[in-house]
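User: Hand in any protein.

Assistant:
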Amino acid sequence: MRNVGGHGGRRRWITVLLVVGAAVWAMGVARRPVPPEPTTSLVTPAVAVVSLPGAAPLDGGGAIDELSPPVDRWEGVVGRADSFYSILTGHGVAPARVLAMVAPDCGKRELSHLVAGQPYTVTCDPESDAVEFRYRTDADHDYVARLEGEQFSARLDPVAWDIRLRHIAGTINSSIFENLQARGVGDAIPMKLAVIFGWDIEFAIDIRPGDRYNLLFQEKWRDGKFVEYGKVVAATLTVQGEDHTAIYYKDGSGYEEYYDPSGRSLTKQFLRSPVNYTRISSNFTYHRLHPILRVYRPHLGVDLAAPVGTPVRAVGAGRVAEVERKGAAGKMVRIRHNDRYETAYLHLSRYAEGVRPGARVRQGQVIGYVGATGRATGPHLDYRFYVHGEAVNPMTIKSPAAEPVKEAYRANFLRLAAEYQGRLVTEPAETVIASSR
């Protein structure tokens, strides 16, 4: 009887164990990760899958081939709580495969430092046992990590812009900033124009209602969305009846510059003005009634009225000769540009960081900020210009130009200049006249 009862008890325990084992197995199947449905594409297939020209290899782990169909692909955006591990395992990639990608990549730190908001693409090829992760590291590059079998490789792909040329023309009825804003063009374009024509046109005082603009400039698009403005490739400003035309050109050596249609550089040795001022409150003269002393004496500079704190820029490259508070001049900076030219900047509220005697400055570098130190009735910059030590009127200086287009590239430049000018004349305004990657 003991043997019979013992056999019956063992049978019951075996039955219980089989039932429990089946339940555990069923739960495991139910909990197995299921790849989510594909989300809305944030990276175009051409960018996400095809290697673009110029891809820079980061790790010589072997050849990187396009994945052969059938493949599984998921696209998304990195969330705040996401990591490389959670993204890939969430798409059904085995943890061991994920770790096999992280280990060789750790020196580059790309996969361990994903940034929330950046798009990514996960691609799996069951036939070749390949996993590929494409991640947008910045506006211009995708980092691509790939594990095929036991072989890991990585590369950096340039992300192509869709460059569109926009042509817009019109007449100024207030300011060029307001006119272009009204037509949906951001401040970046008039600011670029102020730099391009800054040696010949003072935007604050020269441009008036009735003047005209005719512009050809780049818009940079990606994934069907406007991102930013590129180069102004050609522009004509008609100011007080005089045409000023600029053509952008990058020669075969990589040097880029703006030229007039004949190939002369628009860049001058000196900027037209060191500050964005609102008006000229006092001109250069040898006989001025001093506003405080009420006596007549020379005023060997121009007073450019501007709010306190407005940046003051060096009009040309050179070496700082003097930085000090000097009586009626207040805080001042004097720059020696070469054996012939010097400039001085008076009544500053403060100096820019790093501006000290002997320091080298580049053209356009901020050297201080507008103030009213010394003997001054209000905030302004007293700007002075010296030739061989003699003060001259800064507003009448004819600054020497930089070098023209090099002779080796002249024929190519003239062809391009003629093409751009033709577009400005013949193409209808408010159109996108070209699109290229």
User: Anything to note?
Assistant: The chain has seven helices and 24 strands.
